[in-house]
Amino acid sequence: MPEKLNIYRSYGEKLISLFAKLLFSRESHSLTDLSRMLQCSKQTVLRLVGDIQRAYGIEIEEMLKGKQKYYQLTKKKDIPQVFRITRDEMQVLYMCRAFTEHLLGKRLFDDATHALEKSQTLMTDKTDSFDRHFASFMTGYIDYTPHQDEICTLVEAMNEKKICKISYQAIMSKRSRTFYIKPLKIFSHKDTIYVHAQKARTPGKPYEEPDFNPLLALQRFKSIEITDRNFEFPANYDFDRLFRQNFGVIKDETFEVEVEFEGWAANFVAERIWSPDQEIKKVGKNKIRLTFTGSSEPEVISWVLSFGEEVKLISPDWLAEAVARKVQSMEALYNNRK
After folding, report:
1. Cα→Cα distances 113→116, 119, 131, Å
2. Helix, strand, coil share (%) of the chain residues, nearest 5
3. Nearest residue to 161 (alpha-carbon basis) of 104, 64, 234, 224
4. Whether residues 115 and 154 fall in one domain
5. How many Cβ atoms from other residues are within 10 Å of residue 13's Cβ?
6. Domain range holding 38?
7. Residue where a domain terminates, one of 186, 204, 230
C-alpha cells in the first residue's frame, strides 16, 4: 500500500478543510487542486465529497471541463453571508499583506490595508492593530507603484476573458513591439511579477502558432488595452504542471543537474526547496550534493555562481564547461581593471 501523502492530518480535518474551501470561495475547484491542497489522493477527495453530501445534506455540483473534474458548492439562499473572523485568521492576513508589500505597489497595498481594516469589524474578539508584528526587508526590488493600472487592467481582462493589446519591451530590446495576448495567470517569482499568456491573432493578419506561450515581466509593459474580443480559457491549462516541475521560470528543454556545496552554502541550500524533484545527500563533513531537473541554462548558471567558491557544478559536463567559461571571463575582467 502506498504511503499516505499526509499521515499527520486526520480525515476529519480534511473534511472540514474541504467544506470550508467550497463554502467560502464559492468557486469551482478541480479534483487535482483539491487533492494537492488537502495532501491526499483523489480517491480520498471523492470520498470526502460524498460524506459531506450524505451527512450534511450539502449539494456539491460536479462538472467536467476538458478532462478535469471540478466541484462547486451549489448556491443556496439560506447560506449566511457574513462569517466571523478569528484573531489568528486576521494575523495571517496582515502577515501576507506585509510580506507582499513590495509586489503590490502603493495603491494596491493601500487597498489591502483598507480591506483589512474593514474586516476587523467581523472579528470574534477585538485586539490591537497587527501592523507592528510583521514587516519585510527588500533590496534590489522593483517598485510596482507605476504599474498599478496594468495590474488592474490585466485582472479585469482575466475576469471578463478579454483579449488584450499590449506594447512590450523585452529586456535586451531597444524598442517595444505591439501584439495581442490572452492573459491566463499573474504570478510572482523572485520578487518579480510575471504574466503567462497565450498569443492571440493580430486583426487583419493570419495567425501564426508561436513556439511557446509568452512569459511577460509586468514592469516591461509599456501599454495595455482591453479589446472587445473574447477568448476561451483553455480547459487543460495547468500552471503547476508548466512551472512547478523543475528549476527555472524559463521553460526550455529539461536537463539533470548535480551540484556540490560546502561550508555555509551547504547549510543554506539544505534548508530550501529548489525543485520538486530535488534530492540532497551528505557526501562529507559539512558537504552535500544536490540533484534536480533544470529547464533554464542561464538561471542555473547564475544561481551556481551566486555561491562563489562554496559550490562546484558536477554535471552535466556541458553546463559545467559553461560555468568555467563564465568564471574565466570574470577573472579576466578583474585582472584587467585599472
Report:
1. 5, 10, 10
2. 40, 25, 35
3. 234
4. no
5. 12
6. 11-73
7. 230
Taking the model in full, what pTM does it have?
A: 0.72
Please give the tally of structural domains in the chain: 4
Range 106-126 burial, b when 16+ CB lie within 10 A, else e? eebbeebeeebeeeeeeeeee
Contact assessment for residue 150 and residue 169, using Cβ atoms and an 8 Å cutoff:
no
Domain annotation covers residue 36: yes
> Rounded to an integer, what distance in angstroms lies between the CA atom of residue 99 and that of residue 136?
5
Residue 239 within a domain = no
Residue at 30 is within a domain = yes
Q: What is the C-alpha to C-alpha distance for residues 276 and 156, in angstroms, rounded to an integer?
A: 32
As a whole number of angstroms, the distance between CA 250 and CA 256 comes to 15
Q: What does the alpha-carbon distance between residue 36 and residue 323 come to, in Å, rounded to a whole number?
A: 36
Domain assignment present for 236: no
Give whole-number Cα distances, 106 to 66, 110, 145, 201, 327, in Å: 39, 6, 5, 34, 40
φ and ψ at residue 318, rounded to 5 degrees: -65, -30
Do 215 and 167 lie in a common domain? yes
Q: Are residues 223 and 257 in the same domain?
A: no
Query: In angstroms, how far apart are the furthest CA atoms of the chain?
Result: 79
- Tell me, yes or no, whether 212 and 261 share the same domain: no
Residue 165 CB partners (closer than 8 Å, separation 6+): 178, 179, 180, 224, 225, 227
How does pLDDT run along the chain (338 residues), one tens digit per residue?
A: 444 444 435 778 888 888 888 876 667 889 998 988 888 889 999 999 988 888 767 788 898 888 889 998 876 544 444 556 777 888 888 888 888 888 888 888 888 887 877 777 667 665 566 778 888 888 888 999 899 999 999 999 999 999 999 999 998 899 999 999 999 999 999 889 999 999 999 998 888 888 788 999 999 999 999 999 999 999 999 999 999 899 999 998 999 999 999 999 999 999 999 999 999 999 988 899 999 999 999 999 999 999 999 999 999 999 999 999 999 999 999 988 76
Cα–Cα distance between 153 and 159 in angstroms, integer? 10
